[in-house]
Amino acid sequence: MIFLAAVAAGFERRIVMNKERAIKKTRILFLAALINVLAVMCVSAQTGDFTYQGKLTDTGVSGNGLYDFTFKLYDSLTNGTQIGSDVVVGDLPVSNGIFTADLDFGTAALTGGAPRFLEISVRAGASTGAYTILAPRQPLSSAPFAVKSLISTSADGLSAACNLCVTDGHIQSLSGSKLTGVITGDGSGITNINGGNVTSQSITSTQIAPESLPNTTTFKLLGSLRWDLLKGQNSFSVGSNPVSIAFDGANMWVSNQFSNSVTKLRVSDGSTLGTFPMGSNLIGLAFDGANIWVASAGQNRVFKLRAIDGTVQGVFSVGSTPIGVAFDGANIWVTNNNSNNVTKLRASDGAALGTFTVGALPEGLAFDGANIWVANTGSANVTKLRVSDGAVQGTFSVGAIPRQIAFDGANVWVVNGSSNNVTKLRASDGALQGTFAVGSNPDAVAFDGTNIWVANQNDNNVTKLRASDGANLGTFPVGSSGPRALAFDGANIWVANQNFNNVTRLMPAFPQ
Predict the structure, then answer these.
(1) CA 403 to chain centroid
(2) Which of 135, 191, 456, 463 has the fewest CB atoms within 10 Å, i.e. is most exposed?
(3) Does 365 score more than 60 pLDDT?
(4) In terms of Cα–Cα distance, which of 12, 8, 10 is closest to 52?
(5) How far is residue 163's CA from residue 385's CA, in Å, rounded to a whole number?
(6) Nearest to 94 by CA among 122, 119, 71, 117
(7) What pLDDT score does 137 carry?
(8) Residue 308, SS3?
């Protein structure tokens, strides 16, 4: 069955009654809210007729007697085009305001799902005067128990002439046994294929990805029990020569030195969320809780980007060749490699709060909760600055060409590029806690809450050291050339590989 509904709003109109009825006063007609509109149709022989029922108020009281009605159907609430012909119902009885009219504008008028609006005009019965139009028009809608549309029979079958008349949106599922001919595509949506149904020689080795065949990389790693590489390792493309990486709590930001851009990756799946061009010779990155700060060594400036969308919030001048960036909870610190100093900027507005001399060719830096530590590549030492005023708290010798620094909650770790080791210093006083061998040309360091990770640029791998005693827990290939930067996202270690223009994600939990 089909049920059509309409609602008549309460708008008053004045009507002059026929003189023949000897009524010379003005009467007020009011069409009240619809009580019910029903069209009961047999499914096997559906038509376009329906029943309209409403309530009429005449001069403030419920109408009684005979009234003439004219019903028109439109495609719009106002103006629009009339659909079908007028339906005139004369001398329609109204009792206690209630009236019922059978209407039929034709089956075609109600098909296709297009909106329809009913315009109702009324005058006193037996009158030849003008009709009063009751506004607004009343919308017609399908009632909730419809079981078949008026034109559904046309969809019961498809003719052979149906060429491209069925779209993707019409198809819910297909049985593979019904498909014949050549099927094109990359097969990414095909699942649950029974290998026993693949006939001999029907798929050649050149059509299969290398990792899906036995005895290749994945299976060799499985045989070697290299769960550290099998579980959780992924590589994601970024820009040219990625050299720095920073975590904002949900995403990884990567500076692409030669692309003059920064890439934003979602850590959950590595999806690229944006690439933002700026400056030149981009190197260091830091997150301040709301923004990403990027050092442009080619322009002697730092850029402040809003982390949610990469919008530039400001550009601030610093010293010559800025490389490293760190955040102390309120301020941004920048190492100026060719100025042999660091610049302190207020994070809220980028105001310059001071420039402080350190060692030669400063590069990496880290915050220990009270002080900023600066690695001086040209002096083979690190400088400790008090964040409140930049006062030097000490200068401590480390290995040759110290590049980057990480803080583990009690100690600072310094990678020494030419010494192929890392130095562990007690943060409180700079006392040497140990020197530990790693790979060739270490260039980056990160702390995962328990262990220290070091990127060995010439060996294309990373070394994992236990932070408590420096014990070597393993060296793991990253599958790319030139690991240059590291960051920890709370679960994974991310490695920026400058020569392959990508970043690799590792799970530090394997092996222990």
Answers:
(1) 36
(2) 191
(3) yes
(4) 8
(5) 75
(6) 122
(7) 87
(8) coil
Question: Does the pTM of the predicted model rise above 0.70?
Answer: no
Q: Are 336 and 357 in contact (CB under 8 A)?
A: no
Pairing of strands 483-488, 493-497: antiparallel
Q: What structural domains does the chain harbor? A: 4-152 (2.60.40.2060), 227-506 (2.130.10.10)
**What does residue 43 show for φ and ψ, rounded to 5 degrees?**
-60, -35
Q: In the chain, what percentage of residues exceed pLDDT 90? A: 48
Q: Are 473 and 465 in contact (CB under 8 A)?
A: yes
Average pLDDT over residues 465-490: 88
Instruction: State both tokens at 494.
Output: 């991310």
Quote the tokens at residue 88.
């005139």
- Surface-to-core class of residue 344, CB atoms within 10 Å of its CB (0-12 exposed, 13-18 middle, 19+ buried): buried
Q: In the chain, pLDDT over 70 holds for what percent of residues?
A: 70
Where do we find the tokens 């930049």? 390
CB atoms within 10 A of CB 146: 15
Quickly tell me which residue has 């819910």 as its tokens.
172
3-state helix, strand, coil in the chain (%, to 5): 10, 50, 45
Three-state DSSP class for residue 108: helix
Distances (CA, A) of 427 to 344, 380, 390: 21, 18, 16
Continuous segment of H or E residues that includes residue 22:
none
What kind and span of H or E run contains 481? none
Which residue type occupies 492? Answer: N
Nearest to 282 by CA among 481, 485, 418, 492: 485
User: 223-270 pLDDT, tens per residue?
Assistant: 555 544 554 457 889 999 999 999 999 999 999 999 999 999 998 888
DSSP 196-230: GGSPTTSS-GGGS-GGGSTTSHHHHHHHTT-HHHH
The strands making up 322-327's β-sheet, listed across from edge to edge, are 322-327, 331-336, 341-346, 352-357
Nearest to 293 by CA among 253, 242, 339, 258: 253
CA atoms within 13 A on the CB side of 166: 11
Give residue 478's identity as a one-letter amino acid code: V
DSSP bridge pairs for 134: 120
Cβ-contact 323, 337 below 8 angstroms: yes
Terminal C-alpha separation, the chain: 69
HSE-up (13 A, CA, CB side) for residue 113: 4
User: 60: part of which helix (H) or strand (E)?
Assistant: none
Q: Take residue 49 and report the two structure tokens written for it.
A: 């007729």
CA dist., res. 497 & res. 455, Å (int): 10
- CB-based contact 358:371 (threshold 8 Å): no
Q: How many CA atoms lie within 13 A of 405 on its CB side?
A: 34
Indicate the length of the chain as a whole number: 512
Q: Which of 54-58, 107-111, 166-170, 230-234 has the lowest mean pLDDT?
A: 230-234
